[in-house]
TrEMBL record:
Chain segments annotated as transmembrane: none
Domain ABC transporter: from-to ranges: 6-241
Superkingdom: Bacteria
Keywords: ATP-binding, Nucleotide-binding, Transport
GO molecular function: ATP binding; ATP hydrolysis activity
Family annotation (PROSITE patterns): ABC_TRANSPORTER_2
Gene3D superfamilies: P-loop containing nucleotide triphosphate hydrolases
Native species: Salipiger marinus
UniProt name for this protein: Branched-chain amino acid transport system ATP-binding protein
Alphabetical list of InterPro entries matching this protein: AAA+_ATPase, ABC_AA/LPS_Transport, ABC_transporter-like_ATP-bd, BCA_ABC_TP_C, P-loop_NTPase
């Protein structure tokens, strides 16, 4: 594989007698959008948690980021190395302004301060098309889609090499999902590698260059998104064998 920036080798996560992630291996190429799909309970978010160390790392296996092994490192060290993420539940600080919310990521993840931090926050807000008029609004007063923009902007303010998105389309309308689709491709064109978990398959198929499907903690298949989605094993996992 040419120039992998993130590589998982036999990653496993157990909770007592439950194996939530089972011997998962894959590599993400620098500059691509790599999608991860799977039914509810397939281990997608647990896998993200293992990669970032929030709130836990893997039980076994290795994770390499930009040539360095990162499993076992503290979450803030992983973040500052250039791997940033969002969460299924919007991380909201209701009394902070949009600008302040975006700046949090630049400070925590990039260690930025002063003018450099303010510039990074503004650039991130520009990139996610968060208009200037709303930037002094309280986060609590921002729309659902606006909160998604802010969450992504906060992750981008640290200037990561890899952006990990955990179900960013959750709760959005169809027009908002279309706007998110355009936004993610715009972010990717700046050189940011994207690893995305999503239940909205239309979004995954549109933005991903490659797609991996998890089922019961294991890799079911990986490859070209259009081929993957037609795989009978994927149909079985999602629909119990019913025709799509």
């Amino acid at each position: 594989m040419p120039d992998p920036i993130l590589e998982l080798r036999g990653v496993t996560k157990t909770f007592g007698g439950l194996t939530a992630v089972d011997d998962v291996s894959f590599a993400v190429t620098r500059g691509e959008v790599f999608g991860v799909a799977g039914p509810n309970g397939s281990g997608k978010s647990t896998l993200f948690n293992c990669i970032t160390g929030i709130p836990f790392g893997p039980t076994g296996g290795e994770i390499h980021f930009d040539g360095t092994r990162i499993d076992g490192r503290r979450p803030h060290a992983i973040f500052r190395a250039g791997l940033s993420r969002t969460f299924q539940k919007d991380a909201e600080f209701p009394d902070l302004t949009a600008r302040e919310t975006a700046a949090l990521g630049g400070h925590y993840g990039g260690g930025l301060r002063g003018a450099e931090l303010r510039d990074a926050a503004e650039e991130a807000l520009d990139l996610v098309e968060f208009d200037v008029v709303r930037r002094d609004m309280r986060t609590a007063d921002v729309s659902v889609y606006g909160k998604k923009q802010l969450m992504i902007a906060s992750a981008l303010a640290s200037k990561p090499s890899v952006l990990m998105l955990d179900e960013p389309a959750s709760g959005l309308t169809r027009p908002e999902i279309a706007a998110l689709d355009r936004l993610l491709l715009q972010v990717n064109r700046t050189g940011v590698t994207i690893l995305i978990i999503e239940h909205v398959l239309g979004l995954l198929l549109s933005v991903s260059q490659r797609l991996l499907v998890l089922n019961q903690g294991s890799v079911l298949t990986e490859g070209d998104p259009q081929e993957v989605i037609r795989d009978p094993r994927v149909v079985e996992a999602y629909l119990g064998g019913a025709a799509a």
